[in-house]
Fold this sequence. Notes:
- The chain is of the alpha/beta class.
- It is built from 11 helices and 9 strands.
- α10 packs parallel to α11.
- It is globular, with a radius of gyration of 18 Å.
Amino acid sequence: xxxxxxxxxxxxxxxxxxxxxxxxxxxxxxxxxxxxxxxxxxxxxxxxxxxxxxxxxxxxxxxxxxxxxxxxxxxxxxxxxxxxxxxxxxxxxxxxxxxxxxxxxxxxxxxxxxxxxxxxxxxxxxxxxxxxxxxxxxxxxxxxxxxxxxxxxxxxxxxxxxxxxxxxxxxxxxxxxxxxxxxxxxxxxxxxxxxxxxxxxxxxxxxxxxxxxxxxxxxxxxxxxxxxxxxxxxxxxxxxxxxxxxxxxxxxxxxxxxxxxxxxxxxxxxxxxxxxxxxxxxxxxxxxxxxxxxxxxxxxxxxxxxxxxxxxxxxx
Length: 316
């Protein structure tokens, strides 16, 4: 497919290795592809935190796509996977970050229209946010591809708040998806909810919409695996880093006390990679501006790396 010129800001370039025996992810990414048509996986950024501002959160997530890439580039490929991991990287094309429109709503619509042909062609999308308003742009890609989709959201919050003054925000993406007139959202599950972060009205809305939820204290390793084994295709997965306890992820828009530990969080990413129903993911709410020694940025990058570990098992 041909994308319009100047739609995307180019991604950062990986640094050249000084030791040719110690190549990193950045040296393998995109080696086997000339353009997006050749790719199996498409990486793209949605660098917005307008929705976070509207939702009363702490801005800075718009800086995350570049920061996550830079950290991801520095990791080594998984040495346990043989050539599978590096082959996957080689067949990944990075579009860069979307050049945002003047309003969030226009940017979400624009992103959805651009990504729709990639879904129709069977590409697997990996989307780096941005605030959780990224997820609604992600969903609109399925709307414009005319494909119904199931949604799994790893999050401390339900993110089904009403619009604020008629405008979308980082707390509203899944309400918007559930009530979208296209009815393309076939089901919604949110896992990792914290009882001190969920309003009763939001639970009531989930019940009304026949949506499903799992509290954080019910997320055992087996339960995480089961959520993917029970999933229907196509499945879009949203990873909101504020689901992780703030001891491990301090640099987020809305930090969580008593959130997930990294072991369970990374298991969710790995299982998403392995699960054949998963067609696309987004990774959102990392806030480099508020991070501590790049701790959250590195966790976000490791989430992406772990997803690729699972994906390498699935594809190769």
